[in-house]
Amino acid sequence: MLKNTINKNEFIKGILIMGLYFLLPSLLSIPFLFFIKKRSILYLIIYSLTSFIFLLLYRNDLKEEGKDFIKNRRKYVKTALFAWLIGTSIMIFSNYILNVIGVPPLKNQEDNIRLFQEMPITQTIITTLFSPIIEEIAFRKSFNKAFSSPFLFILFTSTSFAFLHIFSSLNNPLSLFYLIPFLSLGITLSFTYKKTSNIFSSISIHAFHNIITLIDIFILGGLL
């Protein structure tokens, strides 16, 4: 059954591109570490180059999808916002339940606040521009042709996305419950992409979500 629903070559290609997501920033930083000491400048260079490389990988598709997004932007944004409202509602509710039952917050929340305190402009650019581009290409665009079943596509890409956002922040086994809120966001983004067949739809709603999250971090961190 899976043999008929998964394109092996496209799936392997997607895994390799996903691997680039983890490796590329570290590799790109190597030549700059010797003469750029300011971390904010280093981060901007690394993530701008990473975004450029990911955009380059799908430059032909992105050119066509960019034209399509401009033409149908109202319809696509409406679809994305509708999915986001549902997904974010589930995300907020599940976070609330986890807080009520006493599941400790992920340690990356404090790390994010500290980074924004250290370099607010750099982190704002990365969070609202570079991260949505890189993550949507790595976790959704790269697997677009790997699955003939939209359900499997959404399941795989949203689960991978959720694990990405918690695996480095697990401080105890209960932290695995945070897969639920991140899974709801991942499903929102994957559904948006499949529904519109346009990666700029999921990039735009991802950027919008990060802006909302950024405002929340600024408030929590006492930066406003």
The helix/strand order is HHHHHHHHHH
- Tell me how many strands there are: 0
Secondary structure tally, helices: 10
Mean pLDDT: 90
Number of domains: 1
Radius of gyration: 18 Å
Structural class: mainly alpha
Features:
globular, 224 residues, mainly alpha
Describe the model:
- This protein is mostly helical and 224 residues long.
- It has one domain.
- The chain contains ten helices and no strands.
- The chain has helices at residues 2-5, 8-29, 39-57, 59-71, 73-100, 108-118, 120-139, 150-166, 179-196, 199-220.
- Helix 3 packs parallel to helix 7 (120-139), helix 5 (73-100) packs antiparallel against helix 9 and helix 5 packs across helix 10 (199-220).
- The longest helix has 28 residues, at 73-100.
Q: How is this fold's topology laid out?
A:
Blueprint: H1 2-5, H2 8-29, H3 39-57, H4 59-71, H5 73-100, H6 108-118, H7 120-139, H8 150-166, H9 179-196, H10 199-220
Helix pairs in contact: 2-3, 2-7, 3-7, 5-9, 5-10, 6-7, 7-10, 8-9, 9-10
What would you say about this model in short?
The chain has about 220 residues and is mostly helical. The protein has helices spanning about 1-5, 10-30, 40-55, 60-70, 75-100, 110-120, 120-140, 150-165, 180-195, 200-220.
